[in-house]
């Protein structure tokens, strides 16, 4: 009887190990893309940007679904990310405009939102769909707010960041994801429901 109980215990332990390992293997696949929720508040800086650039925030944007990016497309994405990071000097809105928030296309200098706007425009000029290029608000590990550009692809969501020249999958970044532009309307924003899931897959990397 003792042997049977011991064998059963080993079987249960191995089964539990297999289940937990399987969950760990499937978790990244489930988080390939951010899971968006309800419409939420639009950042004031983006609202004011839309007032000055109404055509960029108007309804009627077509959402063709996540892009299937070719090798040439990835080369273009990486080149634009690195070039904007190189050519634009990081400066705060307070330094440039004397205000806390002023979203605009940068002219030689800008803050994180300005980097995002310029990268988005350059990628649209290269043929990428606006619905796949979404301004995204995140929180850095130190609690500071930050903006990045999310690229939707059939391989998942990837991040263009002025603090990083590499284009990384969103789960390979250290951020907590809060909200982003809606793929169905460039003037609307939606919450990100699994924004903390990124922290799990980033541990130990």
TrEMBL record:
Signal peptide: 1-23
Keyword Signal: yes
Keywords: Signal
PANTHER family: BLR5470 PROTEIN, PTHR39327
Keyword Endoplasmic reticulum: no
Protein name: Transglutaminase-like cysteine peptidase
Biological source species: Mycoplana ramosa
Pfam families recorded: Peptidase_C93
Gene3D superfamilies with a match to the protein in the record: 3.10.620.30
Family matches, as InterPro entries: Transglutaminase-like_Cys_pept
């Amino acid at each position: 009887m003792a042997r049977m109980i011991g064998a059963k215990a080993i079987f249960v332990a191995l089964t539990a190990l297999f289940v937990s390992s399987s969950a760990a293997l499937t978790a990244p696949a489930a988080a390939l893309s951010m899971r968006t929720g309800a419409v939420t508040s639009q950042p004031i800086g983006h609202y004011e940007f839309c007032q000055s650039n109404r055509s960029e925030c108007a309804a009627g944007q077509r959402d063709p679904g996540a892009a299937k990016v070719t090798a040439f497309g990835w080369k273009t994405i990486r080149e634009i990310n690195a070039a904007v990071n190189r050519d634009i000097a990081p400066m705060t809105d307070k330094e440039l405009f004397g205000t806390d928030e002023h979203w605009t296309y940068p002219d030689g200098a800008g803050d994180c939102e300005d980097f995002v706007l310029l990268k988005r425009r350059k990628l649209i000029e290269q043929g990428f769909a606006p619905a796949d290029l979404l301004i995204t608000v995140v929180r850095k590990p130190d609690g500071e707010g930050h903006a990045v550009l999310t690229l939707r692809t059939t391989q998942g969501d990837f991040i263009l960041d002025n603090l990083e020249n590499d284009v990384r999958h969103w789960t390979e970044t250290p951020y907590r994801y809060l909200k982003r532009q809606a793929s169905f309307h460039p003037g609307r924003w939606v919450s990100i429901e699994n924004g903390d899931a990124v922290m799990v897959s980033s541990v130990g990397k």
